[in-house]
Each structure stands twice: as structure tokens, then as C-alpha cells.
Amino acid sequence: MDVIQLGTGEEKISYVFGGIGSAGCNMVRGKENALALSAGAGDFQGFSRRFHVDRSLFPAMEYSSLGIKSSGLAEMERQLIPELYGDVFVGFAGLGGRTTSVISPYVLELTRRQVIPSIFSVSIPFSVESGERVKSARKTLDAIMSGASLTLIYRNDHLSEIARDMPIMKSFSLMNSIIWLPIDDLSAIMTREDLDIFFGEVRRKAGFFGMGAGSGREKERRAVAEALRGPWIRDALKMRPDTGIAILHSARPDIMDLKDIAREIEEKTPIKRLLVGSIRDNKLENGKAKLSLILMK
After folding, report:
1. 265 burial via Cβ count (<10 Å: 0-12, 13-18, 19+)
2. Confidence of residue 117 (pLDDT cuts 50, 70, 90)
3. Which has the least CB within 10 A, 21, 41, 133, 278?
4. Phi and psi at residue 151, in whole multiples of 5°?
5. What domains are defined for the chain?
6. pLDDT at 200
7. Mean pLDDT of the chain
């Protein structure tokens, strides 16, 4: 297995975090300088950066990739493109609804046009929801994955495993906090020197996240084992992933810890390439570790 270390440079990366549609806006609400993109005015509460999309432009947005543009769409693009500028665009969306199905692929197209790499974190409807909603989610997911460098996928069906006996709204709040963990970790470690490496290895991939913790002499083994038991990581293992990202939290991380993590992942998964990084976490006691793990296909 090839192991590539991230976070060895100095210059930090600028990110644009965008919530798309009602669910996406809920995912990023409270995050500093997050951008809300929606057709519903009620979705903008609490946001200093907001962009209202006129529903009358939806048909034009759907055909914009064919080069068909109305004057209204051209004016909207003129206003929206400056909002998307950064080294990386990170989009958040709950798939299945009409607003998300139109805005997500359109925003992705704009970032590609500006040569801005993108990561999308998306939730998939419950399998018991309406057939039309599930069908729309699949179509939108395909559109996002065809252009985004990395699409992190979270199936709502797994909520029952992570939030047993929890009211549905509280379970969604918990899920939103989990969705941010890999994004927070990546934004904490990646530097400008990592951009070509990361987006060279991660290209149009589906990613699935898991987290684990361990303590004692075998803390790395325990953290990997717990992460691999996560419900979304199990989705990845069914697909025989080929690439992974492992970010270790420790009070005193060192290269040997990362080597131990890499060895455990190599033994327990089929991946051929692993990007690794570490975060010094002073809240953790010595001898304890936390792991963010993304497996991709």
C-alpha cells in the first residue's frame, strides 16, 4: 500500500463552505462565513452570506451545461461566481428535493468552469421515502459524482444505528455534526502544497466516513477497528474501496503512530493508497487517540 503524508507544508488553503437547499443550509448553519444557497427565503436565518436563487431560473439552470443561457441566468452567474471563489469549494446538501436537484449540479458546473476543486457532503433519503424523492436523489448524486473530486455520502437509513431512541430532529442534528468531522479535519491539516497531491489521488470518488477512538498501547488498532465498524464505512467496504484518508488526533502525534495506523488499515481493508495526516489535540490525554477515516471508490 502506498502511503502519502498530508500537512507537511506551511501555507493554508482557503475554503468556501456552501449549504444548498433547506437541508444543506441546516448543515452549515452556525459555521463562520458559510454561504447559504437556496430558493427559500426561510432558509437564510442566521446567515451573513446568502444567495437567493429565483425558482423561475430553474429550467435555464438545468440546461446551462448545454450552453443555453437566458439574460436572467447570466446576471445571476455574474453575482454568484465571486461568492464561490476559494482554493476549494465544499458543498453540503440533502438530496431528493427539487431545489437541491437543480442548484447542486449547477453550482458544481460553475466551480468546474472556474477550475475550483470541490468536495460535496450529501445525505441520501430514507429508503422508505417516496419513490420520486429517492429517484431524484440518485440522479442528483450521479450528477455530483460526475464532477466533484470527492463526494462524501451519508445514507439516512443508518441514523437508527447512530441515534437509537433519539427524536428524529435531534438525530439529524447529530448527523450534521458528524458530517462536519472529516471536513474540519481536512481543512485543519491540508496546505497549499497538498492540493495537487490530494486532488490527484482523489478524483470523482465516492467516499464514506467512519470515526474511532482507542487508548493504551494498542490505541491505533482499536481506533481503526472502531472506525471500520461505522455504518457508512461498511457501505464503502461492500464496494471494495481503493483509496483512503486517515487523520489521527493525538496529544503528541508522531510518525510511528501514523505508520501503525497505516499498517492496521492495510491489514483490514483492500485499499492500495492511503493519505495520512495528524492533528495535535491537547484535549486528549497521553495514550489516547481519535481517528477520522474515509474510504473511497
Report:
1. buried
2. very high
3. 41
4. -120, 110
5. 15-200 (3.40.50.1440), 206-296 (3.30.1330.20)
6. 87
7. 92
Q: Do residues 172 and 136 touch, judged by C-beta distance below 8 A?
A: no
Q: What's the rounded Cα separation, in Å, for the pair 6 and 275?
A: 7
- Residue 120: closest CA among 82, 143, 153: 153
DSSP 191: B
Q: Where are the beta strands (DSSP E) in 13-68?
A: 15-20, 35-38, 49-52
Encoded amino acid at 248, one letter:
L
Cβ atoms of residues 44 and 20 within 8 Å: no
Distance between CA atoms of residues 181 and 186, nearest Å: 9
**Distance separating alpha carbons of residues 50 and 210, to the nearest angstrom:** 31
- Give the residue from 195, 149, 155 showing the smallest Cα distance to 178: 155
- Please say whether the beta carbons of 243 and 182 come within 8 A: no
Strand partners, 93: 20, 122
Q: Provide Rg for the chain, Cα atoms.
A: 19
Which amino acid appears at position 4 of this protein?
I
Task: Report the SS3 class of residue 42.
Answer: helix
74 vs 141, higher pLDDT: 141
The per-type count for the chain, helices as H runs and strands as E runs, is 11, 11
Helical (H) or strand (E) element with 204? none
| CA dist., res. 129 & res. 137, Å (int) | 11
